[in-house]
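Hi support team,

I'm filing this because I wasn't sure whether my run with NAP finished correctly. The job status page said complete, but I'd like someone to confirm that the output block is well-formed before I use it downstream. Pasting the exact inputs I used:
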Amino acid sequence: MRTRRLGQNGPDLTVIGLGTWAIGGSWEYGWGAQDDRDSLEAIFEAMDCGINWIDTAPIYGCGHSEEVVGKALKQMQKKPLIATKCGLLWNEKREKIHCLDRESIFRECEASLRRLGIETIDLYQLHWPVPDAQLEDAWEAMCKLAEQGKVRQVGICNGSVELLERISSIRPPASLQNPYSMVERGIEDSLLDYCGQQQIGVLAYSPMYKGLLTGKFSHAYMQQLPADDHRKRFDRHFQEPQFSRYVKRADRLQEIAAEHNRPAAQLAIAWVLRRETVTSAIVGARRTGQITETAGASEWILDAEIMESIDRAWDSV
Ligand SMILES: NC(=O)c1ccc[n+]([C@@H]2O[C@H](COP(=O)([O-])OP(=O)(O)OC[C@H]3O[C@@H](n4cnc5c(N)ncnc54)[C@H](OP(=O)(O)O)[C@@H]3O)[C@@H](O)[C@H]2O)c1
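And here is everything the job wrote out:
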């Protein structure tokens, strides 16, 4: 699989990374029940597809995603690079709590290393920069962890240009992990250019918008999702009036992709990767078959003609 260098100093990441939010199972922002055997198979399958890095976070299933990734790592000879995060804790109801206290970040790092069963985290990312007043404290703590060799690179998620400038004066971040898909295009305004200029790696999350752009969503599909799938409960893009519009758009994307004998999921991911500044798209998978279907996007270069068809299809709905 193609690779791109992360930021100034690497490592080289495959243009698709495996996202493990959904495999965390149940918590406030879970995706319904998840069988660990399916998760492990999905992780091994991603490695077989040539993917060389995994993105996880302590909050995904209140430690469970990291544990499952750790279990998979134990069974692998050639280990992928591991990116995880800090800054989100949870309460006894498995609801998220923002916390950027310095000591808490040190504790979180130790807990992640333990759950993952590794000695060093390749990329340690601040999950949400909240509360804002503690941003610099948290970043300094993460830089300390890098000095101690507990983490190799430090990055940030859900950031803005202003926030990147604030932390860069302490230590330039290796990466920015933000949402990027046809549904959420915010980073095109200024962040992509800024990261390109500053040589900050860009990790694009939810490239298929949580499955919405794969063409499988319909009102009937939505109905049968479990009540504790956060897409049903909290996400406005899965609610009306937006939802019907996205379903129609995804249908059009499916038609375009079919003309090239490809699934719509690949079109959605290839669209994200067309921007050279994007280092890698983080693609979620929770059962066998999914990542094999999506991984082919890494080799699909979209030409001007197909880009025009996508724009026309998107704007026509
Ligand atoms: N830093 C942050 O704040 C942040 C936020 C969001 C995500 N992320 C990271 O980015 C990763 C990817 O984002 P994401 O999981 O939200 O969205 P995504 O990659 O756009 O969508 C993943 C979901 O789509 C469905 N899917 C996967 N392959 C499919 C296929 N071939 N055909 C049909 N459906 C398929 C699966 O869910 P179903 O089968 O249940 O539909 C899967 O969980 C996350 O796992 C996480 O690591 C980070």
